[in-house]
Amino acid sequence: MPVARSPLPRAEADPGRRRVLAAMLGAPVLATGGLTGCTEGQAAPVETGPVELSVFWYGGAKRAELTERVLRLYTDRNPRVGFRITWQGAGGYYDRLATQAAGGNVPDLIQLDDSMLTEYARREIVLDLSGYVADHRLDLRTLPPGLVRYGQVDGRTVGVAAAQTAAAVVYDRTLLRRLRLPEPNTGMSWAEYVAWARRVTRASEGRVAGTMDPSGDYRALWLWLRGQGGEFYRGRQLGFDADALIEWFDLWRRARSSRATPSAALVEQADGGEPIQQLVVTGATAASFAWSHQLPELQRLTDAELGLAAMPGPPEAQWHRASMYWTAFRGTRHPDLVADVINFLTGNGEAGSVLGHERGLSPSLAVRSYVEGSITEPAQRRAAALGTALAARLGPAPSPPPQGHPRVRALLLEAAESIRGGRTGPRAATARFMAQADAALAG
């Protein structure tokens, strides 16, 4: 259920020189420059009276706690700006946003992921931020260029990465130590990974399967394709043919036959991606697939020590990937101010210290450097270490997924589940997927 909060309280005016000058000039100063060179100190837009911005995001209670703290920090600096916040879990989030969009009642500041960015941009629900980027009111100069590109649709900046993440293998270190088996490592091939998973199943005498079956996971397929020089999408079309998809499904059919993966029923239980259902958390497998920034949440759900490695295949198949974006509603009455809040959330050192790595690595390289010593939670540090290790090896960023991507994701999962359950063979499932995916992308 959505969680609504009453407006965050505005701080009393700061008696410091900046506030005194603002009072003398009769206008608020909303400077939100970063710390120690994270962003340049720039005056935010001048508003003539109190402003309340609505904010909506998805995530858990920890994300809500940290985000509210950062928004209060912004209000501390800018007492005339307050926030009305709503947050909820990922389930049903986009249904709620769609209802708001239909009524023209979208919050001023919204969190999107790459599955919806293109659709919201082309439907002109989110604001084109390119002008703010051009004159550095929204300063993206300390973000990796690939991460900036991954927020662009049709050459326009429509979203700014709230954080950066990577597709990863999360594995049970405690179990592997007990079985005296090596940990999976970044750079191992898909064939090597499946062979490792078979060893785990044998060593545990079948009590624990080696790995989750990712045959229906678009992230895994996308990286497998890129590792062979391919792509998931080419513009508004699929970037692969039926033969490639059949080869992918066959890889995991062989893995299942050698018991590297668990039963179809267990895999389907985890297919929704909810952290509490991850098979590495429930103890059904030694490894699962997740986003690297999810490691702290997964770690809180188990007593076992969890480790992290990049998803199999060459690291160059990965790219500077936004875990999610901050975007502005095109119909906001305060576009300049919303852009300034996004600038604060993504480029301010103190804000970065509060947020930590809950959404992933700070998008700003300068902020990452600034907060590095302040991150003490072991799981967050392991996630950050993976991001650092991958940084110099990432490949070029593709465009964000096209409209129709959520439907394509669902169709891939349906095809994989029909194969795993023995209801359809790989060729028939692939043919059906290709036809339906083409229709979804053309719509």
UniProtKB/TrEMBL annotation:
It holds the Pfam family SBP_bac_1. InterPro entries: Bact_solute-bd_prot1, SBP. SUPFAM superfamilies: Periplasmic binding protein-like II. PANTHER family: ABC TRANSPORTER SUBSTRATE-BINDING PROTEIN YESO-RELATED, ARABINOSE-BINDING PROTEIN-RELATED. This is Extracellular solute-binding protein. It comes from Micromonospora reichwaldensis.
